[in-house]
């Protein structure tokens, strides 16, 4: 392993790519601490110290921004607008036939879809930055029970100041998107994923330190041991797949013989990745967000539905919240897998090139068999995603770690997934220049 790492730094081209990627990552983290115009940096830091973490309503967005959201920095929105835009464009392929046609055109069509994703990212950046500034002006960014300092985060309420803040945060989202594409083109690849990895990993030391200070060294050691076990389990499941054997018949084209080889269709246990967790979290945040904007005036009691939402759908340790979260993740997993993997399309492509599954007739029987296997494999994957996502909530009930528990939910899935993919990228580039790669 150490000799392989030494070969990485002895290879000039690969060394430059890694250095370039690390430089972009450093600039990305630097922008997360530069406050936007007209933001009172002192009050923001005081509120962060007083609240010891994030508000549950903005926990997911703050996670993907590396903590920059609640600091109201120039990179406050992080990579979240791009993630949302990518998911929306992917889902629109099912609704809009033109998008599906572009996807099937190859590189040129997918380049057009990428351009649509960029435009939608900027539009979502404007919307989300406006919402964030509005919430910060109302004093509800750190919750309704926050101190008076948290209602004075913005020093200038004039229209031009608000517009400048919106433009700055939206431009920050565009710069992050550009940085990710630079890493993909000139660095080690997976630019957007690597920036998300950086945002989440940057919060690990602070989270573990907070657990150590609040709960003691023994609880910290238990959390680390549990975290290592969770990482090992996630790696095992993420690498697990059901391989469906496929044989291709021999074909004579002129004097040459084509086909006749054996391969397989890999169906991963977790084909949906982290997307169902994001969907479920976003959907559960909507009632809390609506209730927050329907708070009564001073001296008046809140509406019954606002009280019910506040008591049941804003507390992660509430049994109803956990149950809905788990069921939404399972449902969205089946939904997303059904969109991204089309058994009929796979069966048609196999039939077109003379491929078949041993013991299964080509055409419709093959599509039905693939759908049957996919449904059965998706069930453990959906249950696995639900259990991993509930880990932080269970940790809150057990040891009171709440947001400080880093080994669970979307964070650990992204950390492991991006880490494995990055190692594979480096390994493949190393094998192009040496007989041996990073992995043995």
TrEMBL record:
One of this protein's GO BP terms? protein transport by the Sec complex
| Entry-linked Pfam families | SecY (PF00344)
Q: Name one GO cellular component term.
A: plasma membrane
> Topology with regard to the membrane?
Multi-pass membrane protein
Location(s) in or outside the cell: Cell membrane; Membrane
NCBIfam families reported for this sequence: 3a0501s007 (TIGR00967)
Task: Identify this protein by name.
Answer: Protein translocase subunit SecY
Species name: Cryobacterium algoritolerans
């Amino acid at each position: 392993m150490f000799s392989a790492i030494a070969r990485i730094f002895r290879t000039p081209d690969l060394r430059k790519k890694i250095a370039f990627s690390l430089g972009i990552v450093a600039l990305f983290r630097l922008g997360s601490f530069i406050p936007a115009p007209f933001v009172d940096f002192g009050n923001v830091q005081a509120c962060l110290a007083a609240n010891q973490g994030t508000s549950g309503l903005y926990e997911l967005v703050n996670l993907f921004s590396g903590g920059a959201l609640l600091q109201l920095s120039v990179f406050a929105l992080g990579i979240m607008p791009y993630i949302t835009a990518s998911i929306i464009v992917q889902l629109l392929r099912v609704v809009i036939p033109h998008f599906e046609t572009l996807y099937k055109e190859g590189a040129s069509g997918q380049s057009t879809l990428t351009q649509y994703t960029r435009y939608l990212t900027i539009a979502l950046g404007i919307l989300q930055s406006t919402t964030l500034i509005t919430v910060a002006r109302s004093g509800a960014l750190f919750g309704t029970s926050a101190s008076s300092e948290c209602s004075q985060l913005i020093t200038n309420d004039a229209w031009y100041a608000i517009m400048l803040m919106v433009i700055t945060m939206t431009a920050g989202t565009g710069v992050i998107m550009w940085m990710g594409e630079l890493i993909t083109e000139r660095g080690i690849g997976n630019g957007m994923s690597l920036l998300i990895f950086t945002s989440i990993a940057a919060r690990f030391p602070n989270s573990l330190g907070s657990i150590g200070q609040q709960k003691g060294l023994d609880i910290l050691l238990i959390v680390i041991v549990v975290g290592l076990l969770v990482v090992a389990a996630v790696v095992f499941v993420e690498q697990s797949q059901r391989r469906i054997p496929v044989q291709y018949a021999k074909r004579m084209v002129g004097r040459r013989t084509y086909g006749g080889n054996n391969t397989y269709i890999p169906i991963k246990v977790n084909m949906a990745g982290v997307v169902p967790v994001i969907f479920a979290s976003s959907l559960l945040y909507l009632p809390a967000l609506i209730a927050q904007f329907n708070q009564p005036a001073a001296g008046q009691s809140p509406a019954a539905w606002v009280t019910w939402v506040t008591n049941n759908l804003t507390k992660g340790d509430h049994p109803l919240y956990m149950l809905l979260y788990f069921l939404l993740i399972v449902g969205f997993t089946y939904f997303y897998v059904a969109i991204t993997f089309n058994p009929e399309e796979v069966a048609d492509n196999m039939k077109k090139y003379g491929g078949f599954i041993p013991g299964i007739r080509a055409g419709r029987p093959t599509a039905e068999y693939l759908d049957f296997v996919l449904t059965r494999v998706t069930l453990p994957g959906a249950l696995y995603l639900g259990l991993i996502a509930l880990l932080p909530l269970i940790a809150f009930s057990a040891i009171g770690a709440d947001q400080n528990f880093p080994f669970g939910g979307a964070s650990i899935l992204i950390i492991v997934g991006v880490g494995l993919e990055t190692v594979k990228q480096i390994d493949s580039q190393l094998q192009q220049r040496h007989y041996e790669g990073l992995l043995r």
